[in-house]
Design brief:
Two copies of one chain form a homodimer. By secondary structure, chain A is an alpha/beta fold. In chain A, the strands form two sheets. Chain A has a six-stranded parallel β-sheet, with helices on both faces. A four-stranded mixed β-sheet of chain A has the order 1-3-4-2. In chain A, helix 6 links the parallel strand 6 and strand 7. At the A-B interface, helix 2 of A face helix 2 of B.
Chain lengths: 271, 271
């Protein structure tokens, strides 16, 4: 959706710019990064799997990009490539727009893929009180463990890793949380269980947010909506990170309300 | 102007496509040609000086591109790059739109840069009766001489090279021509002489056409306009070649009238 979002925004802003998709394989990544430094390109986004590999070809990294090793946004300046990560900051920016300030809040996170890690880092930098991360079979990549360790040391945040198998602990964590972040793809059995038990577990003040950038909202967030809780969708988070990219590339303020109005309409849960 | 022309046309056609400029140095030409074969790019134009060098990196050339050695339009098909030259054919296509059929006509051409060569080839393929080409100091690149020689042999066209210094011969050629093509940049002293003498030399049936793709019309064409002769501008020729590119890339018919209406307005002579 990014080409549509940015093109619409550039049009609204009167910016003489286009955003176009290129299907770049890992074997061509180095040469396109080198080329983009010289061809008059202002900046670009990098998708999966290139976002995990592109850092080695860049000249400079933002602290968050450095910490996570994932770069989804690059700015070209004076023939140098500077890498950023706007996924986590976009997620947080959207929470704040919706009136939720993560500072000193308790957070439970479901899943710890690349987006889960990005959200964890962004929340840590916002000084949340605690982060309880649930993963399947306690499996987590070594690089992510390193990253969590550094966050613990640098930011002094209490980050705990748990296994989904410990369902009772999951329920306890959610019951005492201010924010539940869903970074799981649909079809996970633990989600079905949680949805059924939500009325018993979710407190009135809980906010439930999708981290994954899909147009559809998850059944978990839909359930929370139906219970009258505050929710955030993945598409809102995608739009918020797009706004951060436009700020980085052009120094402009994306007309977020207008873009949300055009593209932010969620499509119902992804059953 | 090409990004503006194509973007306007794609919008009119409802094509989901963008046309964006990249500033590609000769040293990056090979890598971008290789990249464009894989990144989902439909096709692209190539400007000076890359248009003279790009052929060696392509997988196939159209006959005109092969003959001239200049490629201004590339189509990517199934991971292969096919080179075309639409400059000359666009010039001819515009003449035909204006009601001038070059077949069996006598043509005088001023200047023999890359555009002059492209126009010469396209006119030769339309079976003109004769082509009298005037150049400065009889200087002409060896590759162009080769090309003319091949045209003479293949198409049986009478192509003569002259020196601008032979002004009397220039006047004689123009007086007996159906078409005068100006491929000179402004500021040439021979143009000033010709403009002054135009009322005495230009016959009533003469058509005068700019070959160079500038937005401004030449003083020579402006003079011809004032004399009530048929004329063709460089911007019209640019738009006609853009239409050929869109046909090659997408198989669509550019809405030429609409594009001419938006961009074809000439800006007066480039004094």
């Amino acid at each position: 959706m990014s080409p549509a979002i940015h093109t619409y925004s550039y049009d609204k802003l009167g910016l003489n710019a286009v955003y176009a998709p290129f299907d770049v394989g890992l074997d061509q990544l180095e040469s396109i990064v080198e080329g983009f430094k010289h061809w008059g390109v202002v900046g670009y986004n990098v998708g999966i799997p290139n976002k995990f590999e592109v850092a080695q070809y860049l000249d400079e990294l933002s602290p968050v990009a450095e910490l996570s090793g994932a770069v989804n946004c690059v700015k070209v300046e004076n023939g140098r490539s500077v890498g950023y990560n706007t996924d986590g900051p976009g997620f947080v920016s959207n929470l704040k727009r919706l009136g939720f300030d993560p500072s000193r809040k308790r957070v439970t996170l479901l899943g710890f893929d690349e987006m889960g890690l990005a959200v964890t880092m962004a929340l840590a930098l916002e000084s949340v009180e605690s982060l309880d991360v649930f993963v399947r079979n306690a499996f987590i990549e070594e690089s992510a463990v390193d990253c969590i360790q550094r966050l613990r040391l640098q930011e002094g945040i209490c980050i705990n890793l748990h296994d989904f198998a410990d369902y009772e602990e999951l329920c306890d964590c959610i019951a005492s949380s201010d924010l539940l972040v869903n970074s799981l793809r649909p079809g996970s059995s633990v989600l079905d269980e949680l949805i059924a038990d939500a009325p018993a577990i979710f407190s009135d003040g809980l906010m439930v947010a999708d981290a994954v950038h899909t147009r559809e909202i998850s059944e978990l967030v839909e359930q929370a909506k139906q219970m009258g809780l505050k929710t955030a969708s993945g598409i809102e988070s995608l739009i918020a990170q797009a706004a951060l990219c436009e700020k980085i590339w052009f120094g402009v303020e994306m007309p977020i309300d207008s873009v949300l109005n055009r593209f932010g309409g969620v499509l119902g849960s992804n059953k």
